[in-house]
Amino acid sequence: MSSDSSSEEEEDEEEEEESDEPEMQILPEDTVIKVFGIFKSSQFDRIDNNKLAKLGFTFTSDTFYEESSPEIQLFNQQYFNQNHVYPSYYATKGFDIVFDVGMRLASGNKLKQTFKNGTSYRLESKFDYTKDLFKTTSNKGIYILEYNSDLTINRLK
Q: Angle, nearest 10°, between helix axes 89-106 and 70-83?
């Protein structure tokens, strides 16, 4: 009798274990799944870009590089002609910062006053200055980007 009761207990335990786990379900084909990240960290580099594109991976970034932009093509060509190499991330970022500050100063207003004039977009950077708690000014300009199915990246407005 003890062997019968122990086998019944085992069956009860198995049923309990099964009921604790959620049942796997298959989603209908027309279900759209999107993956969002605060930024595209190195963890996402381990995932195939085709999979990220299929999931419409959406993330934030402080830069957005659109190769087809005439401004970027002109900058790259002029930089290449001058330096015999294409610009690095840092060269383009440095240009964007200097150009943004130069344009703000050329307006004739004090630099801090120009920060209130709104957002500016440069080659691959966005500048949206705000005052923080301790009255320091910082750039809060970010892009919201999304992978397309053809592996291009689209800037969301």
A: 110
Cβ pair 54, 31 in contact under 8 A: no
pLDDT at 13: 54
Q: How many CB atoms lie within 10 A of CB 59?
A: 20
How far is 40 from 60, CA to CA, in rounded Å? 7
pTM of this prediction?
Answer: 0.68
Query: Domains of the chain: which residue ranges?
Result: 30-62+142-157, 63-141
Yes or no: say if 47 and 53 are a contact pair by the CB < 8 Å rule. Answer: no
- Residue 128 identity (one-letter amino acid): D
Does the pLDDT value for residue 79 go beyond 90? yes
User: How far apart, in whole angstroms, are the C-alpha atoms of residue 75 and residue 80?
Assistant: 8
Q: Which residue type sits at 97? A: I
> How would residue 82 be classed by pLDDT, with cut points 50, 70 and 90?
very high
